[in-house]
Automatic annotation (TrEMBL):
<feature type="binding site">
    <location>
        <position position="507"/>
    </location>
    <ligand>
        <name>substrate</name>
    </ligand>
</feature>
<dbReference type="InterPro" id="IPR000111">
    <property type="entry name" value="Glyco_hydro_27/36_CS"/>
</dbReference>
<dbReference type="InterPro" id="IPR013785">
    <property type="entry name" value="Aldolase_TIM"/>
</dbReference>
<keyword id="KW-0326">Glycosidase</keyword>
<dbReference type="Pfam" id="PF16875">
    <property type="entry name" value="Glyco_hydro_36N"/>
</dbReference>
<feature type="domain" description="Glycosyl hydrolase family 36 C-terminal">
    <location>
        <begin position="630"/>
        <end position="707"/>
    </location>
</feature>
<feature type="binding site">
    <location>
        <begin position="458"/>
        <end position="462"/>
    </location>
    <ligand>
        <name>substrate</name>
    </ligand>
</feature>
<dbReference type="InterPro" id="IPR031704">
    <property type="entry name" value="Glyco_hydro_36_N"/>
</dbReference>
<dbReference type="InterPro" id="IPR050985">
    <property type="entry name" value="Alpha-glycosidase_related"/>
</dbReference>
<dbReference type="InterPro" id="IPR013780">
    <property type="entry name" value="Glyco_hydro_b"/>
</dbReference>
<feature type="binding site">
    <location>
        <position position="529"/>
    </location>
    <ligand>
        <name>substrate</name>
    </ligand>
</feature>
<feature type="binding site">
    <location>
        <position position="183"/>
    </location>
    <ligand>
        <name>substrate</name>
    </ligand>
</feature>
<keyword id="KW-0378">Hydrolase</keyword>
<dbReference type="Pfam" id="PF02065">
    <property type="entry name" value="Melibiase"/>
</dbReference>
<comment type="similarity">
    <text>Belongs to the glycosyl hydrolase.</text>
</comment>
<feature type="binding site">
    <location>
        <position position="425"/>
    </location>
    <ligand>
        <name>substrate</name>
    </ligand>
</feature>
<feature type="active site" description="Proton donor">
    <location>
        <position position="529"/>
    </location>
</feature>
Amino acid sequence: MPVTPLDDHRWAITTPASTYVIAVEIDPLTGEATPRQKYWGPRLTAEAARQVAASGARRHVSSFSTPAEVEELLPVDGGTRWGVPSLQVSFGHTRSVEPSFAGASVHDEGGGAERLDLLLTDAHHPFEIVLSVRVRDDTDVIERWTTVRHRCDAEVTVTRLDSGNWFIPDAASYRYSGVFGAWAEELQLQRGPLPVGELVFTSRQGVTSHTANPWVMIDDGAATEEHGEVWGVALAWSGSWRLTTTHRPEGGVCVSGGFGHDGPRWRLAPGEELVSPAALGLYSAGGFGAASRSWHEYARRHVLPTAQEERPVLYNSWEATTFAVTGEHQLQLAKIAAGLGVELFVIDDGWFGRRDDDTTSLGDWWPHHERFPDGLRRLLDGIRDTGMRVGLWVEPESISRDSDLYRAHPDWALHMTHRRRDEKRGQLLLNFARDDVRDWAFGWLDRLVAELDLDYLKWDMNRPFTQAGWPEREAEQDRVWIEHTRNVYRVMDLLRERHPRLRIESCSGGGGRIDFGIMRRTDEVWPSDNTDARDRQTVQHGFSQLYPAGTMSAWVTDSPNPTTGRAMPLRYRFHVAMAGVLGIGGNLPEWTSAELAEAAELIAQYKEIRPVVQHGRQYRLAGTPGQERSAVQYVLDHRVVVLVYNPLGNAKRGPRHLRLTGLDPDALYERTSDGSRLHGSVLMSAGIRPAAWEPIGADHRSELVVFRKV
């Protein structure tokens, strides 16, 4: 059983490779209940779990500290705690929680999943807290979330509700891994010693954000790509969030994570409950690579709606047309794209309202009257006649001041009384927390998809929250920070329910909305507006730490790159994009016949390796991507695919032999390009000598290497 009761107050949560032991401890003097983590690491037997549940190391305690609070599942604001609270509640003039234990229950959820619920109540107020833990028999990822319920008539205000606190087992030292970034420079991996004190990763923007992503990994400083223990915590939420890692001066590390950021308040009406999103925990004994592969497999099995499908090769018209979308030009692009082997054609911004630039028409979601007086159907049918599926770009959450929608409903925009309405990118943000806005958005999206028989939506969101007020809700207007994201989820869920063939891409000015919450509703995500292949390698490296390649949209665009001005060979651009879901975004009529022929050949090659890249186990090999000789490897069944990169052709240092990994050492592997055969042990110990890694040559050399297990 994944959940094993050890007694009335202790439980062992067992995954295929790990065990997580928790206990509810009762203070004999005060009666206060403290749910505490007793163990999280390699898998234990039930008897061994009982032993660790009954044990515990004492920490240095003074009248100024309670260091054991790092081990609590949900440290509350109350009692003798001074660390980061995972739960803050105000009962009128009282801001403190004193939990009592009211019982536990185990639920069989089917499909190999079980859920443990721990019920706590406040010692005085009829206020309930439910700590939920879900475990599955096919993944090492453990899901946790928190529910609070208001059972009294008095005012109750929640100012912090984390999904849970995770204790990282004691070590001599600690190192953190995470990502930072900015627009066009998202998902940059960083690793460093975990400082004593509090390290906060957060978004206060109302979206996941470009600046950070809601996960952190902790190790003892010795873990490598394929060796060592790693603990990871991720949050499945697409709005504002906070992860706080606390390294206490007395020793001990914990990570508490949840939605929202500092400041907003959620008032609960009598009988109302508030449920946090899931926080996900993973222990891996196989280094960062094994941790990543566990996250990838979890996403495929339990997050992604269409993980079993192969994502199509798409063409997006934005960089070829920007706002100048016309039927004639789109058909010209479609015919060229279809000739290359593209399977999905997406018309980007500029098809609606009077959208001639970025200052107008967001909210007016009907075909541009001057460019498409008879609507879009004829154009889309013409694109379908080339054999491709069809999609459209939309931005449902934004509104232009110069729009019929804003003139009719200025109150629908986020705003505060007696405060200005600042624009970003020439637009405001709709208050998606409002039911009328949600219903309006679903209505026009539902009609658009049905009337045009759309296969695909690129759902964009190009600005963060500003002046995030909801004056009509008065003291409850901070709900916008939660309900906006929840209603985005609801609209996407309803669209998928009504249109089972529809596939959705998540975009937010590039990589501003990438997380396991949005991935539950979408089929792929756009990691960055920067399509420069060198820069994309570092973005894709950070992306792969948690998210699988089959969700990562990656385009080949023009050279010199429109963002960076860097020139690069077409083959290198393709080989970088082939590491995810291949897309084309260049101005195809300006490509030479030789470039078009090479592109068609490379697209055909990608289709051959696509199942392995999108569904296989991923291994990161050699040096830092985009800066040194590097490679990325995928293994699926008997097939092995390796994409090899050398950005700096005259580099004298760095690896000369590429060692593969994850193979059967006793098997023979045949290289498909020349029929040569090598044992798996040779490929993993001696490696191969990629032509792209020769010490003298041009910059930006790359190659595709494919092996088949004999």
